[in-house]
Amino acid sequence: MPLFSPRRLAFAIVLVLGVAGCAPEPIAVPVPTQVSTIAPPAPSTSLSSPQEATLTPSMTPMRGEAPRSPEVTSEPEGARSMTGPVTTATPSVEVLPAAILSSGDTGDEVRELQHRLLQLQWYEGKITENFGPQTQLALEGFQTKRGLPSLGFVDRATMDRLVGMSRTPTHDEMYNVLTPGPALLATGSTSRR
Predict the structure, then answer these.
(1) DSSP string, 53-94
(2) How far is CA 92 from CA 17, 31, 89, 95, 150, in A?
(3) Segment 6-11 long-range contacts (CB within 8 Å, at least 24 positions apart)
(4) How far is CA 56 from CA 32, 87, 135, in A?
(5) Residue ranges of the alpha helices (H) in 25-166?
(6) Residues 144-178 pLDDT 10s
(7) Using only C-alpha atoms, what is the Rg of the chain?
(8) Residues 13-61: tens digit of each pLDDT
(9) What is the signed CA dihedral for 148, 152, 155, 160, rounded to 10 degrees?
(10) What is the arithmetic mean of pLDDT over 110-138?
(11) Nearest of 51, 163, 143 to residue 97 by alpha carbon
């Protein structure tokens, strides 16, 4: 029985060339978990490349040898493996800001929101107490235009921006009460002609 099997000889050559800095970077080879029943490759008389030896390890025993497990060896210093440390990627979870007002809400806060959006020409129509699709669409437009995240609901940053750009609506404005102003023409008015 020879002192070195062809596989061990090839590994020794690769190891020596790797330490000397002459070999290309080693390539990681998956190691089978069980002994293969495929016949070993025919012995080669010449090794044209050290990679050939590292890419085709034989896991089947030679005649007269007992089955052997894969050898665990450390890489020579300075050699880099193409497989790095195993890292598990944790999915990034985006945390949304707390909603102050959102779709389905009702009340005076919604009326105020609608009127503030109306002042900035984002909301059209009658002021209601319902946060519906029309309010949400107006809010998303405002948020996008102002560089805020288009959330479709009111968070603290959106409310602060709205308050800073509009005035507090009056009770009559929030409830669609029209108060007439002074009359331009009334009974008894005369013309200058």
Answers:
(1) HHH----SPPTTPPP-PPP--PPPTT---SS----PPPPP-P
(2) 44, 33, 9, 9, 19
(3) 6/43, 6/44, 7/53, 7/57, 7/58, 10/47, 10/50, 10/52, 10/53, 10/54, 11/53, 11/54, 11/71, 11/73
(4) 12, 27, 67
(5) 50-55, 108-119, 133-145, 156-165
(6) 999 999 999 999 999 999 999 999 999 999 999 98
(7) 40
(8) 766 666 656 545 555 555 555 544 555 555 555 444 444 444 444 455 5
(9) 50
(10) 96
(11) 143
The residue written with tokens 């009359």 in the block is 183
Counting every residue written for the chain, the total comes to 193
Backbone φ and ψ of 101, nearest 5°:
-135, 140
pTM more than 0.85? no
